[in-house]
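Is this the right way to post structure tokens for a design question? Let me know if I should format differently. Anyway, here goes:
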């Protein structure tokens, strides 16, 4: 079985011996047969193969090994002792993905576990694109992105805009950012968190709004290191790969120099919507 996908400018083919029932949000990026940059061969295994190489990164959910310049990943879930899948690069255009047979149904059920199989943040960085942990809303023909650490209220602020202004959410948890015709755009991403809101759309980015919970509402525009120190931690990046990490840092610097970044300290109220709205309206006059 062969299936074709395109996320941002990355087109790839997924091959497997069985017809995989993939998560619905990932399926939004499926295309007809196209020329592809990369091929993933998905193999369902009773036992995951032995891995080789030097460990270059290890956390509770991933172990990364370097094997003569090719990357291997063992992927697991926090609190579990054994990985549910392995990603093995074979060459510049091919990788094998092994999924433990006993975990297959669980892995295919969730956006996050399935998307993590493909090492997509590497492919996006190679194409000068960034993955920002954020919720996005329609703002006319543009998009406004709310970003912050998990639990701060990205989806909540997006919901306030729907409640008080009728603006709808585009993506609930992740957005892909890339430049087209000299301007940064947000694009769809197949991970949407608990919001379950995911659309494969493309819009120019009006602004990025970093959030903090507060007892009163206030807003300030961030520049330079103030903006970078807020935005970069919310970028998905394999920091063990120094070359790619430096490239992502450079892309982030370009992003914050070309897209307005605000810090919104906010309550859950229409007033938080109003003060941001006033700032966005002033951007139209610049």
């Amino acid at each position: 079985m062969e299936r074709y996908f395109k996320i941002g400018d990355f087109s790839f083919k997924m091959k497997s011996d069985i017809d995989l029932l993939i998560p619905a949000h990932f399926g939004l990026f499926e295309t007809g047969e196209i020329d592809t940059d990369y091929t993933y061969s998905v193999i369902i295994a009773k036992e995951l193969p032995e891995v080789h190489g030097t460990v270059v990164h290890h956390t509770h959910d991933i172990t990364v090994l370097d094997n003569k310049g090719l990357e291997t990943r063992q992927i697991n879930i926090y609190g579990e002792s054994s990985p549910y899948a392995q990603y093995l690069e074979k060459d510049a255009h091919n990788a094998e993905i092994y999924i433990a047979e006993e975990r297959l149904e669980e892995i295919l059920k969730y956006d996050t576990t399935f998307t993590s199989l493909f090492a997509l943040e590497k492919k996006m960085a190679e194409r000068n694109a960034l993955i920002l942990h954020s919720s996005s809303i329609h703002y006319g023909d543009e998009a406004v992105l709310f970003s912050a650490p998990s639990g701060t209220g990205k989806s909540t602020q997006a919901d306030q805009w729907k409640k008080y202004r009728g603006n709808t959410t585009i993506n609930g948890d992740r957005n892909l950012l890339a430049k087209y015709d000299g301007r940064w755009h947000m694009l769809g991403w197949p991970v949407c968190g608990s919001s379950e809101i995911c659309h494969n759309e493309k819009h120019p980015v009006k602004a990025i709004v970093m959030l903090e919970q507060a007892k009163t509402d206030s807003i300030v525009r961030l520049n330079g290191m103030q903006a970078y120190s807020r935005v970069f931690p919310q970028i998905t990046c394999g920091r063990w790969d120094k070359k790619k990490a430096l490239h992502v840092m450079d892309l982030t610097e370009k992003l914050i120099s070309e897209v307005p970044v605000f810090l919104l300290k906010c309550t859950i109220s229409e007033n938080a919507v109003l003060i941001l709205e006033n700032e966005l309206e002033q951007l139209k006059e610049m």
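Format looks fine. Someone answered above. Worth noting: The mean pLDDT is 93. Helices lie at 24-27, 104-109, 111-115, 120-126, 154-165, 224-231, 242-258, 270-284.
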